[in-house]
Amino acid sequence: MSIHVGIMCKMCRKVHFIATSHSIKPSKLAAGMYRLTCNPPCLTSGEFRKESMRPYRVSEDVFKKGYAKESEYELVR
Ligand SMILES: [Zn+2]
Fold first, then answer.
1. I need a labelling partner for 51 at 20 to 30 A (CA). Which of 6, 31, 65, 75 fits?
2. Distance 42 CA to ligand 1 centre (A)
3. Residue 23 Cα, ligand 1 centroid: separation in angstroms?
4. pLDDT score recorded for residue 70
5. How far is the CA of 51 from the centre of ligand 1 (A)?
6. Phi/psi of residue 70, nearest 5 degrees
7. How many angstroms is it from 41 CA to the middle of ligand 1?
């Protein structure tokens, strides 16, 4: 297990990791913002600030995949 920074999809609660996710792109609308488009079947998209990312404890396999399902991560407080 190791700690990686990610953003949670508000709809399905998957966490996407900034370092490995293909679902996170820089925003075209504003500097310092990012756009997350969640994986199918969710496909929820939205813009977020870098500051809203949080550290999560996950396995290396999950981190390499780019995202973690709700049972696969633990928020680090
Ligand atoms: Zn989602």
1. 65
2. 5
3. 10
4. 96
5. 19
6. -55, -35
7. 8
Given this model, what pLDDT does residue 38 score?
Answer: 98
Neighbours of 53 (CB within 10 A): 19
Q: How far is the CA of 9 from the centre of ligand 1 (A)?
A: 5
Residue 77 Cα, ligand 1 centroid: separation in angstroms? Answer: 22
Token pair recorded at residue 25: 């792109």
DSSP E strand boundaries for the chain: 2-8, 15-17, 24-26, 33-37, 45-49, 54-58, 67-68, 74-75
40 C-alpha to ligand 1 centroid (Å): 8
34 Cβ neighbours under 8 A, 6+ residues apart: 7, 18, 24, 25, 26, 27, 47, 48, 49, 50
- Give CA 53 to chain center in angstroms: 8
